[in-house]
Hints:
The chain is an alpha+beta fold and 196 residues long. It contains seven helices and eight strands; from the N terminus they run ααββββββββααααα.
Amino acid sequence: MSQNLLTAALAQHVSLTAEEEAAFLAICTTQEAKKKEYLLRTGELNHAIYFVQSGCLRSFIIDKAGKEVNLEFAVERYWISDIAFSKPAMLSIQALEATQYAQININAFEQLTQERPVFNLFFRKLLQNGYFAFKKRMLTGMTQTAAENYRDFLLKFPDLSQRIPQYHIASYLGITPEFFSTIKSEGLDLYRQAIS
Length: 196
């Protein structure tokens, strides 16, 4: 397991002793998923949190029309899960590339939080960050143009548009692939302005 990536990700939220770090790493298992492989499907019991070490995962739902709607992408150093732990999952998680990830069993993690309260703080910060990201995405989705939303996608995931099919990005932005084609260059221009 790439422990440096994982311990650096932990350090973004909490300060841990070497013993606490070791206790956390002990409940993590390194896994690999092939491209298009599912880690979780809607309706299955969810027992894990995932930390991406390399590759890309997506979470998505299927709407009433049977269309996949991308909710989230997780690339290197990102966490992803369904928040319904030990209950039927509300969403699916799938690898869009060959992906190496750390899997943290939620039951083992809950036991760890009882033994070492610092992990309650870590989990609360993780949930807060996830909630903030979803809220921001929802609000900008309602108040910005599609081109501005694509700019924000590029700012968050600078190289992901070169790694995954464009229709996945369109789904994430809540637009059709055809409309995405028409706003893509405008979004790229806005992105270049933002980083210059």
